[in-house]
Amino acid sequence: MFRWVNKLVPLFEKTFRKHKRPMGKSWRMDETYIRVKGQWKYLYRAVDKAGQTIDFLFRAKRDKVVARCFFEKSIAQNGVPETVTIDKSGSNLAALHEVKAERETPIQIRHVKYLNNVVEQDNRVIKRRTRPMLGFKDFHCTRIMLSGIELMRMIKKWQMKCRGKTPLFPAQKFYSLDS
Question: Does domain 3-178 have CATH number 3.30.420.10?
Fold first, then answer.
């Protein structure tokens, strides 16, 4: 696909993670489908109640092991949430119960359909961005491309800490990632 994207996006993401603002303690988690080479793959996403992206993970399967991996990664980078709102997916619920059992701080699990609308609407933006790309051919390249899309969405949502007192525009924030 785009060779420069495959080389630079992982570096930008690593740098961005160092400057990411802390997120809320009430998470909304969902997965959406992305077609790669004619097969459905899964993009796990979590946002807080204000719509700020907490984390994302692109995987080929949708099961308890992948859901647990997503929760472990999200908690390691953003801290333990107080509440997690999920849909009726059994694999997400089982993984969250396992993660909850290992933690000392309690995690409240909710199945409120309408509270998950925040993440559903955020998934819509990702789908709108990927639809005109004429399909993905390689899983690895798709993972990196989605990482870049998510990274730019987080910058546009003002999720990056500013060093100075004056707020920077998204393009200025992106260019400041190299320092």
Answer: yes
